[in-house]
Amino acid sequence: MASKNYDERTLLAVIGDEDTVTGMLLAGIGNVSEEDGSRNFVVVDSKMTDEQLADHFQTYTTRKDIAILLINQHIAERIRFQVDAYTQAFPALLEIPSKDHPYDPEKDSVLRRVHKLFGE
Prior knowledge:
Keywords: Hydrogen ion transport, Ion transport, Membrane, Transport, Vacuole
CATH topology: Rossmann fold
Oligomer: single chain
Radius of gyration: 15 Å
GO molecular function: proton-transporting ATPase activity, rotational mechanism
Order of helices and strands: HEHEHEHHEH
Helix content: 25-40%
CATH architecture: 3-Layer(aba) Sandwich
InterPro entries: ATPase_V1-cplx_f_g_su (IPR008218), ATPase_V1-cplx_fsu_euk (IPR005772), ATPase_V1_fsu_sf (IPR036906)
Protein name: V-type proton ATPase subunit F
Subcellular location: Vacuole membrane
Strand content: 15-25%
């Protein structure tokens, strides 16, 4: 039986560009908390500073109701130091491509750790 901590992790969160977040919301992942109005998604545009982006990343990686955090890889590049330093199992962090920016496995922090473990 799973511990109570894992039972509470029921949400996906997404930090992405407008097209990615819109697609995820259309797929049904959107959630707005009734208690405080917090959302499990954020649209990153050119007006958002790296500090604001880092704050959103920190918020989502410390929330106890999020199981998986999806982030566009080109956005993760803006806070690569923080993404690379993240080592927790939950929420799981997955870098995903966007419509305009293809996925580059050489930049993916999780994939780099896997390669390091296997000595590649």
